[in-house]
Protein backbone atom coordinates (compact mmCIF):
# COMPACT_ATOMS: atom_id res chain seq x y z
CA UNK A 1 0.00 0.00 0.00
CA UNK A 2 1.42 3.34 -1.04
CA UNK A 3 1.91 5.83 1.84
CA UNK A 4 -0.31 8.89 1.92
CA UNK A 5 1.57 11.87 0.55
CA UNK A 6 1.04 15.19 2.39
CA UNK A 7 1.36 18.23 0.20
CA UNK A 8 0.46 21.90 0.14
CA UNK A 9 -1.95 22.73 -2.64
CA UNK A 10 -1.13 25.31 -5.30
CA UNK A 11 -4.13 27.40 -4.19
CA UNK A 12 -2.87 27.39 -0.60
CA UNK A 13 0.57 28.50 -1.73
CA UNK A 14 -0.90 31.43 -3.67
CA UNK A 15 -3.10 32.39 -0.72
CA UNK A 16 -0.08 32.26 1.59
CA UNK A 17 1.90 34.47 -0.81
CA UNK A 18 -0.89 37.05 -0.92
CA UNK A 19 -1.26 36.95 2.85
CA UNK A 20 2.48 37.43 3.35
CA UNK A 21 2.44 40.34 0.89
CA UNK A 22 -0.41 42.01 2.77
CA UNK A 23 1.37 41.57 6.11
CA UNK A 24 4.52 43.04 4.60
CA UNK A 25 2.59 46.02 3.26
CA UNK A 26 0.84 46.72 6.60
CA UNK A 27 4.03 46.26 8.62
CA UNK A 28 6.03 48.49 6.27
CA UNK A 29 3.37 51.17 6.38
CA UNK A 30 3.30 51.26 10.22
CA UNK A 31 7.09 51.14 10.52
CA UNK A 32 7.74 53.87 7.94
CA UNK A 33 4.95 56.06 9.32
CA UNK A 34 6.66 56.06 12.74
CA UNK A 35 10.06 56.56 11.17
CA UNK A 36 9.03 59.62 9.12
CA UNK A 37 6.48 60.78 11.72
CA UNK A 38 4.12 61.28 8.78
CA UNK A 39 1.46 58.63 7.98
CA UNK A 40 1.06 59.73 4.33
CA UNK A 41 4.76 59.76 3.66
CA UNK A 42 5.11 56.39 5.42
CA UNK A 43 2.34 54.89 3.29
CA UNK A 44 3.99 56.13 0.10
CA UNK A 45 7.35 54.70 1.17
CA UNK A 46 5.68 51.39 2.05
CA UNK A 47 4.02 51.32 -1.37
CA UNK A 48 7.36 51.83 -3.13
CA UNK A 49 8.98 49.13 -0.99
CA UNK A 50 6.16 46.65 -1.79
CA UNK A 51 6.40 47.49 -5.50
CA UNK A 52 10.06 46.50 -5.40
CA UNK A 53 9.73 43.43 -3.19
CA UNK A 54 6.52 41.97 -4.72
CA UNK A 55 8.05 41.14 -8.16
CA UNK A 56 11.10 39.67 -6.46
CA UNK A 57 8.95 37.47 -4.20
CA UNK A 58 6.71 36.45 -7.13
CA UNK A 59 9.74 35.54 -9.23
CA UNK A 60 11.26 33.48 -6.41
CA UNK A 61 7.95 31.68 -5.88
CA UNK A 62 7.02 31.16 -9.56
CA UNK A 63 10.52 30.25 -10.81
CA UNK A 64 10.08 26.48 -10.19
CA UNK A 65 6.64 26.53 -11.85
CA UNK A 66 7.93 28.48 -14.84
CA UNK A 67 10.84 26.04 -15.16
CA UNK A 68 8.35 23.17 -15.05
CA UNK A 69 6.18 24.79 -17.76
CA UNK A 70 9.23 25.25 -19.99
CA UNK A 71 10.17 21.61 -19.47
CA UNK A 72 6.61 20.51 -20.31
CA UNK A 73 6.58 22.68 -23.42
CA UNK A 74 9.89 21.26 -24.63
CA UNK A 75 8.80 17.69 -23.89
CA UNK A 76 5.49 18.12 -25.75
CA UNK A 77 7.41 19.54 -28.72
CA UNK A 78 9.61 16.41 -28.63
CA UNK A 79 6.47 14.23 -28.55
CA UNK A 80 5.21 16.09 -31.61
CA UNK A 81 8.48 15.29 -33.40
CA UNK A 82 8.23 11.61 -32.49
CA UNK A 83 10.76 11.58 -29.63
CA UNK A 84 9.10 10.02 -26.58
CA UNK A 85 12.24 9.54 -24.48
CA UNK A 86 11.73 12.60 -22.21
CA UNK A 87 10.39 12.45 -18.68
CA UNK A 88 10.19 15.19 -16.03
CA UNK A 89 11.05 14.97 -12.34
CA UNK A 90 8.36 15.88 -9.81
CA UNK A 91 9.42 18.65 -7.45
CA UNK A 92 6.57 21.05 -6.59
CA UNK A 93 4.60 18.70 -4.30
CA UNK A 94 1.25 20.19 -5.44
CA UNK A 95 -1.31 19.76 -8.23
CA UNK A 96 1.40 20.32 -10.84
CA UNK A 97 2.87 16.99 -9.75
CA UNK A 98 -0.30 15.33 -11.08
CA UNK A 99 0.29 16.99 -14.44
CA UNK A 100 3.92 15.84 -14.44
CA UNK A 101 2.89 12.29 -13.53
CA UNK A 102 0.26 12.21 -16.29
CA UNK A 103 2.83 13.55 -18.75
CA UNK A 104 5.35 10.87 -17.80
CA UNK A 105 2.72 8.13 -18.08
CA UNK A 106 1.74 9.43 -21.51
CA UNK A 107 5.38 9.31 -22.61
CA UNK A 108 5.72 5.74 -21.31
CA UNK A 109 2.56 4.64 -23.19
CA UNK A 110 3.73 6.35 -26.38
CA UNK A 111 7.14 4.67 -26.12
CA UNK A 112 5.55 1.25 -25.68
CA UNK A 113 3.12 1.87 -28.55
CA UNK A 114 5.90 3.00 -30.86
CA UNK A 115 8.00 -0.03 -29.97
CA UNK A 116 5.03 -2.33 -30.57
CA UNK A 117 4.26 -0.54 -33.84
CA UNK A 118 7.88 -0.84 -34.91
CA UNK A 119 7.85 -4.59 -34.18
CA UNK A 120 4.59 -5.02 -36.13
CA UNK A 121 5.95 -3.01 -39.06
CA UNK A 122 9.15 -5.07 -39.00
CA UNK A 123 7.15 -8.30 -38.97
CA UNK A 124 4.85 -7.07 -41.77
CA UNK A 125 7.78 -5.93 -43.89
CA UNK A 126 9.54 -9.27 -43.35
CA UNK A 127 6.43 -11.18 -44.38
CA UNK A 128 5.74 -8.99 -47.42
CA UNK A 129 9.36 -9.01 -48.57
CA UNK A 130 9.66 -12.78 -48.32
CA UNK A 131 6.27 -13.79 -49.73
CA UNK A 132 6.54 -15.63 -53.07
CA UNK A 133 3.79 -13.41 -54.46
CA UNK A 134 5.17 -10.44 -56.40
CA UNK A 135 3.75 -7.13 -55.12
CA UNK A 136 3.91 -3.77 -56.90
CA UNK A 137 2.29 -0.62 -55.50
CA UNK A 138 1.84 2.36 -57.83
CA UNK A 139 0.73 5.93 -57.17
CA UNK A 140 -1.85 7.78 -59.34
CA UNK A 141 0.71 8.98 -61.90
CA UNK A 142 1.99 5.45 -62.48
CA UNK A 143 5.26 5.56 -60.54
CA UNK A 144 6.11 2.49 -58.46
CA UNK A 145 6.32 3.33 -54.76
CA UNK A 146 6.88 -0.19 -53.44
CA UNK A 147 8.02 -3.57 -54.74
CA UNK A 148 8.97 -6.64 -52.73
CA UNK A 149 11.87 -9.01 -53.38
CA UNK A 150 9.80 -11.33 -55.58
CA UNK A 151 8.73 -8.38 -57.77
CA UNK A 152 12.31 -7.17 -58.12
CA UNK A 153 13.43 -10.64 -59.17
CA UNK A 154 10.55 -11.12 -61.61
CA UNK A 155 10.62 -7.71 -63.30
CA UNK A 156 14.02 -6.09 -62.76
CA UNK A 157 16.66 -8.80 -62.30
CA UNK A 158 16.69 -8.33 -58.53
CA UNK A 159 17.24 -4.57 -58.64
CA UNK A 160 15.02 -2.05 -56.87
CA UNK A 161 11.89 -0.97 -58.73
CA UNK A 162 10.84 1.97 -56.55
CA UNK A 163 10.75 5.19 -58.58
CA UNK A 164 10.41 3.44 -61.96
CA UNK A 165 7.38 3.99 -64.17
CA UNK A 166 5.06 0.99 -64.08
CA UNK A 167 4.21 1.24 -67.79
CA UNK A 168 7.88 1.36 -68.79
CA UNK A 169 8.70 -1.60 -66.56
CA UNK A 170 5.87 -3.65 -68.11
CA UNK A 171 7.12 -2.89 -71.63
CA UNK A 172 10.05 -5.23 -70.94
CA UNK A 173 7.80 -8.12 -69.85
CA UNK A 174 6.47 -10.96 -72.07
CA UNK A 175 3.41 -10.33 -74.26
CA UNK A 176 1.02 -12.62 -72.27
CA UNK A 177 1.66 -10.57 -69.14
CA UNK A 178 1.00 -7.29 -70.95
CA UNK A 179 -2.20 -8.73 -72.42
CA UNK A 180 -3.37 -9.78 -68.97
CA UNK A 181 -2.73 -6.26 -67.65
CA UNK A 182 -4.59 -4.76 -70.59
CA UNK A 183 -7.79 -6.66 -69.79
CA UNK A 184 -8.20 -4.76 -66.52
CA UNK A 185 -9.45 -7.77 -64.51
CA UNK A 186 -8.11 -10.66 -62.48
CA UNK A 187 -7.00 -13.59 -64.63
CA UNK A 188 -4.48 -16.37 -65.22
CA UNK A 189 -1.73 -16.09 -67.80
CA UNK A 190 1.21 -18.26 -68.88
CA UNK A 191 4.58 -17.18 -70.21
CA UNK A 192 8.13 -18.47 -70.43
CA UNK A 193 10.36 -17.52 -67.50
CA UNK A 194 13.90 -18.83 -66.95
CA UNK A 195 13.42 -21.31 -69.77
CA UNK A 196 10.21 -22.83 -68.36
CA UNK A 197 6.49 -22.29 -68.84
CA UNK A 198 5.13 -20.54 -65.76
CA UNK A 199 1.51 -19.83 -64.88
CA UNK A 200 0.66 -16.75 -62.79
CA UNK A 201 -2.49 -15.26 -61.37
CA UNK A 202 -2.83 -11.49 -61.74
CA UNK A 203 -4.94 -9.51 -59.28
CA UNK A 204 -5.21 -5.75 -58.85
CA UNK A 205 -6.85 -3.71 -56.12
CA UNK A 206 -7.27 0.06 -55.69
CA UNK A 207 -7.38 1.87 -52.34
CA UNK A 208 -6.82 5.33 -50.89
CA UNK A 209 -3.47 6.05 -49.28
CA UNK A 210 -2.78 9.54 -47.90
CA UNK A 211 -5.87 10.78 -49.72
CA UNK A 212 -4.74 9.48 -53.13
CA UNK A 213 -5.80 6.42 -55.10
CA UNK A 214 -3.04 3.78 -55.28
CA UNK A 215 -3.09 0.50 -57.19
CA UNK A 216 -1.68 -2.77 -55.84
CA UNK A 217 -0.70 -5.43 -58.39
CA UNK A 218 -0.24 -9.02 -57.20
CA UNK A 219 1.40 -11.69 -59.36
CA UNK A 220 1.09 -15.15 -57.78
CA UNK A 221 2.98 -18.10 -59.26
CA UNK A 222 0.64 -21.07 -59.56
CA UNK A 223 2.64 -23.45 -61.73
CA UNK A 224 3.44 -26.00 -59.01
CA UNK A 225 -0.07 -25.91 -57.54
CA UNK A 226 -1.72 -26.28 -60.95
CA UNK A 227 0.61 -29.12 -61.86
CA UNK A 228 -0.28 -30.95 -58.66
CA UNK A 229 -3.99 -30.37 -59.24
CA UNK A 230 -3.69 -31.48 -62.85
CA UNK A 231 -1.89 -34.69 -61.89
CA UNK A 232 -4.45 -35.41 -59.17
CA UNK A 233 -7.32 -34.82 -61.60
CA UNK A 234 -5.77 -37.04 -64.25
CA UNK A 235 -5.26 -39.80 -61.69
CA UNK A 236 -8.95 -39.65 -60.81
CA UNK A 237 -9.96 -39.64 -64.48
CA UNK A 238 -7.63 -42.55 -65.31
CA UNK A 239 -9.02 -44.58 -62.41
CA UNK A 240 -12.59 -44.00 -63.63
CA UNK A 241 -11.72 -44.71 -67.28
CA UNK A 242 -9.82 -47.87 -66.32
CA UNK A 243 -12.78 -49.06 -64.29
CA UNK A 244 -15.20 -48.37 -67.15
CA UNK A 245 -13.00 -50.03 -69.79
CA UNK A 246 -12.39 -53.08 -67.63
CA UNK A 247 -16.13 -53.47 -67.02
CA UNK A 248 -16.63 -53.77 -70.78
CA UNK A 249 -13.41 -55.38 -72.02
CA UNK A 250 -13.30 -58.15 -69.42
CA UNK A 251 -16.74 -59.57 -70.42
CA UNK A 252 -15.92 -59.16 -74.12
CA UNK A 253 -12.64 -61.10 -73.66
CA UNK A 254 -14.37 -63.82 -71.68
CA UNK A 255 -17.27 -64.07 -74.13
CA UNK A 256 -14.89 -64.21 -77.12
CA UNK A 257 -13.14 -67.18 -75.52
CA UNK A 258 -16.49 -68.83 -74.81
CA UNK A 259 -17.65 -68.18 -78.41
CA UNK A 260 -14.53 -69.83 -79.81
CA UNK A 261 -15.14 -72.87 -77.58
CA UNK A 262 -18.78 -73.12 -78.73
CA UNK A 263 -17.66 -72.95 -82.35
CA UNK A 264 -15.20 -75.76 -81.71
CA UNK A 265 -18.04 -77.82 -80.25
CA UNK A 266 -20.43 -76.81 -83.04
CA UNK A 267 -22.95 -75.50 -80.47
CA UNK A 268 -24.17 -72.73 -82.73
CA UNK A 269 -27.50 -72.13 -80.99
CA UNK A 270 -25.76 -70.54 -77.98
CA UNK A 271 -23.67 -68.09 -80.00
CA UNK A 272 -26.54 -65.60 -80.36
CA UNK A 273 -26.57 -64.65 -76.69
CA UNK A 274 -22.78 -64.24 -76.72
CA UNK A 275 -22.86 -61.93 -79.73
CA UNK A 276 -25.78 -59.95 -78.22
CA UNK A 277 -23.78 -59.36 -75.02
CA UNK A 278 -20.66 -58.38 -76.96
CA UNK A 279 -22.75 -55.93 -79.03
CA UNK A 280 -24.29 -54.41 -75.87
CA UNK A 281 -20.89 -53.88 -74.25
CA UNK A 282 -19.51 -52.43 -77.50
CA UNK A 283 -22.41 -49.96 -77.68
CA UNK A 284 -21.69 -49.00 -74.10
CA UNK A 285 -18.05 -48.31 -74.93
CA UNK A 286 -19.09 -46.30 -77.97
CA UNK A 287 -21.44 -44.21 -75.82
CA UNK A 288 -18.68 -43.79 -73.28
CA UNK A 289 -16.29 -42.40 -75.92
CA UNK A 290 -19.03 -40.18 -77.36
CA UNK A 291 -19.64 -38.76 -73.92
CA UNK A 292 -15.91 -38.11 -73.47
CA UNK A 293 -15.94 -36.20 -76.75
CA UNK A 294 -18.86 -34.06 -75.59
CA UNK A 295 -16.89 -32.97 -72.50
CA UNK A 296 -13.58 -32.47 -74.33
CA UNK A 297 -15.08 -30.48 -77.22
CA UNK A 298 -17.48 -28.16 -75.40
CA UNK A 299 -17.98 -25.12 -77.69
CA UNK A 300 -17.28 -21.58 -76.53
CA UNK A 301 -20.44 -20.10 -74.91
CA UNK A 302 -22.37 -17.47 -76.87
CA UNK A 303 -24.05 -15.39 -74.14
CA UNK A 304 -27.26 -13.46 -74.80
CA UNK A 305 -29.90 -11.72 -72.70
CA UNK A 306 -32.23 -14.35 -71.20
CA UNK A 307 -35.53 -13.74 -69.40
CA UNK A 308 -35.80 -16.13 -66.47
CA UNK A 309 -39.54 -16.80 -66.79
CA UNK A 310 -39.27 -17.89 -70.44
CA UNK A 311 -36.13 -19.90 -69.79
CA UNK A 312 -37.56 -21.83 -66.83
CA UNK A 313 -40.84 -22.49 -68.63
CA UNK A 314 -38.89 -24.22 -71.39
CA UNK A 315 -36.82 -26.11 -68.79
CA UNK A 316 -40.03 -27.40 -67.15
CA UNK A 317 -40.83 -29.32 -70.31
CA UNK A 318 -37.83 -31.60 -69.74
CA UNK A 319 -37.99 -32.24 -65.98
CA UNK A 320 -40.57 -30.89 -63.58
CA UNK A 321 -39.67 -28.87 -60.50
CA UNK A 322 -41.31 -26.60 -57.95
CA UNK A 323 -40.14 -22.99 -58.10
CA UNK A 324 -39.24 -21.73 -54.63
CA UNK A 325 -38.28 -18.08 -55.00
CA UNK A 326 -39.26 -15.01 -56.95
CA UNK A 327 -37.31 -14.58 -60.16
CA UNK A 328 -34.89 -11.65 -60.61
CA UNK A 329 -36.47 -8.87 -62.65
CA UNK A 330 -33.30 -8.18 -64.64
CA UNK A 331 -32.40 -10.58 -67.45
CA UNK A 332 -29.29 -12.73 -67.17
CA UNK A 333 -26.57 -13.11 -69.81
CA UNK A 334 -25.51 -16.64 -70.70
CA UNK A 335 -25.65 -19.24 -73.45
CA UNK A 336 -29.25 -20.51 -73.02
CA UNK A 337 -28.63 -23.86 -74.78
CA UNK A 338 -25.61 -24.72 -72.64
CA UNK A 339 -27.10 -23.61 -69.31
CA UNK A 340 -30.31 -25.46 -70.16
CA UNK A 341 -28.29 -28.63 -70.79
CA UNK A 342 -26.44 -28.19 -67.49
CA UNK A 343 -29.69 -27.78 -65.53
CA UNK A 344 -31.29 -30.71 -67.36
CA UNK A 345 -28.42 -32.90 -66.14
CA UNK A 346 -28.81 -31.62 -62.59
CA UNK A 347 -32.62 -32.03 -62.59
CA UNK A 348 -32.28 -35.54 -64.06
CA UNK A 349 -30.03 -36.53 -61.15
CA UNK A 350 -32.50 -35.00 -58.67
CA UNK A 351 -35.40 -37.06 -60.09
CA UNK A 352 -33.26 -40.22 -60.13
CA UNK A 353 -32.13 -39.74 -56.52
CA UNK A 354 -35.24 -41.42 -55.15
CA UNK A 355 -36.74 -38.10 -54.08
CA UNK A 356 -40.44 -37.46 -54.57
CA UNK A 357 -40.99 -35.28 -57.67
CA UNK A 358 -42.86 -32.79 -55.45
CA UNK A 359 -39.67 -32.29 -53.42
CA UNK A 360 -37.52 -31.37 -56.42
CA UNK A 361 -37.24 -27.56 -56.23
CA UNK A 362 -35.46 -24.82 -58.15
CA UNK A 363 -34.65 -21.35 -56.82
CA UNK A 364 -32.99 -18.40 -58.57
CA UNK A 365 -31.39 -15.73 -56.39
CA UNK A 366 -29.21 -12.78 -57.33
CA UNK A 367 -26.33 -11.63 -55.11
CA UNK A 368 -24.69 -8.47 -56.44
CA UNK A 369 -23.19 -9.30 -59.81
CA UNK A 370 -23.70 -13.06 -59.44
CA UNK A 371 -26.82 -15.21 -59.78
CA UNK A 372 -27.24 -18.62 -58.13
CA UNK A 373 -29.55 -21.38 -59.32
CA UNK A 374 -30.22 -23.97 -56.59
CA UNK A 375 -31.68 -27.38 -57.51
CA UNK A 376 -32.65 -29.34 -54.38
CA UNK A 377 -34.12 -32.77 -53.68
CA UNK A 378 -34.97 -34.97 -50.70
CA UNK A 379 -33.06 -38.08 -51.74
CA UNK A 380 -30.39 -39.78 -49.62
CA UNK A 381 -27.75 -37.15 -50.40
CA UNK A 382 -24.10 -38.07 -50.98
CA UNK A 383 -21.33 -39.51 -48.84
CA UNK A 384 -18.10 -37.56 -48.38
CA UNK A 385 -16.35 -39.77 -50.94
CA UNK A 386 -19.05 -39.24 -53.56
CA UNK A 387 -19.11 -35.48 -52.91
CA UNK A 388 -15.34 -35.33 -53.48
CA UNK A 389 -15.58 -37.17 -56.82
CA UNK A 390 -19.05 -36.33 -58.16
CA UNK A 391 -17.72 -33.62 -60.51
CA UNK A 392 -14.94 -35.83 -61.93
CA UNK A 393 -15.75 -36.97 -65.49
CA UNK A 394 -17.04 -40.58 -65.76
CA UNK A 395 -17.40 -41.02 -62.00
CA UNK A 396 -20.79 -42.54 -61.26
CA UNK A 397 -22.36 -44.61 -58.49
CA UNK A 398 -25.22 -45.72 -60.76
CA UNK A 399 -25.01 -49.07 -62.49
CA UNK A 400 -25.95 -47.57 -65.87
CA UNK A 401 -24.66 -44.04 -65.26
CA UNK A 402 -22.13 -42.37 -67.54
CA UNK A 403 -20.68 -40.06 -64.91
CA UNK A 404 -20.84 -37.13 -67.35
CA UNK A 405 -23.92 -35.20 -66.23
CA UNK A 406 -22.42 -33.19 -63.38
CA UNK A 407 -18.99 -33.07 -65.06
CA UNK A 408 -20.53 -31.47 -68.16
CA UNK A 409 -22.51 -29.06 -65.97
CA UNK A 410 -19.28 -28.06 -64.27
CA UNK A 411 -17.53 -27.48 -67.61
CA UNK A 412 -20.43 -25.30 -68.79
CA UNK A 413 -20.50 -23.26 -65.56
CA UNK A 414 -16.74 -22.64 -65.59
CA UNK A 415 -16.81 -21.75 -69.30
CA UNK A 416 -19.27 -18.97 -68.32
CA UNK A 417 -16.96 -17.73 -65.57
CA UNK A 418 -19.04 -19.40 -62.85
CA UNK A 419 -18.87 -22.54 -60.75
CA UNK A 420 -20.95 -25.43 -59.44
CA UNK A 421 -21.16 -26.63 -55.85
CA UNK A 422 -22.75 -29.65 -54.15
CA UNK A 423 -23.87 -29.86 -50.53
CA UNK A 424 -26.00 -32.21 -48.46
CA UNK A 425 -29.16 -30.64 -47.01
CA UNK A 426 -30.27 -30.65 -43.41
CA UNK A 427 -33.01 -33.24 -43.09
CA UNK A 428 -31.74 -35.25 -46.06
CA UNK A 429 -31.25 -34.57 -49.72
CA UNK A 430 -28.81 -32.73 -51.94
CA UNK A 431 -28.54 -29.13 -53.16
CA UNK A 432 -26.67 -28.43 -56.40
CA UNK A 433 -25.84 -24.73 -56.88
CA UNK A 434 -24.98 -23.28 -60.27
CA UNK A 435 -23.38 -19.83 -59.80
CA UNK A 436 -23.11 -17.56 -62.86
CA UNK A 437 -22.07 -13.93 -63.44
CA UNK A 438 -24.95 -11.59 -64.24
CA UNK A 439 -23.11 -10.10 -67.22
Automatic annotation (TrEMBL):
Highest taxon in the source lineage: Bacteria
E.C. numbers: 2.7.13.3
Transmembrane segments: 12-33, 39-58
Swiss-Prot/TrEMBL keywords: ATP-binding, Kinase, Membrane, Nucleotide-binding, Phosphoprotein, Transferase, Transmembrane, Transmembrane helix, Two-component regulatory system
Main location class: membrane
Positions of the Histidine kinase domain: 240-439
Ranges of residues in domain HAMP: 70-115
Subcellular location: Membrane
Primary enzyme class: transferase
Membrane is among the record's keywords: yes
Hydrolase in keyword set: no
Annotated coiled-coil segments of the chain: none
SUPFAM superfamilies: ATPase domain of HSP90 chaperone/DNA topoisomerase II/histidine kinase, Homodimeric domain of signal transducing histidine kinase
Swiss-Prot/TrEMBL catalytic activity: ATP + protein L-histidine = ADP + protein N-phospho-L-histidine
GO MF annotation list: kinase activity
Protein name in the entry: histidine kinase
Species whose genome carries this gene: Lysobacter niastensis
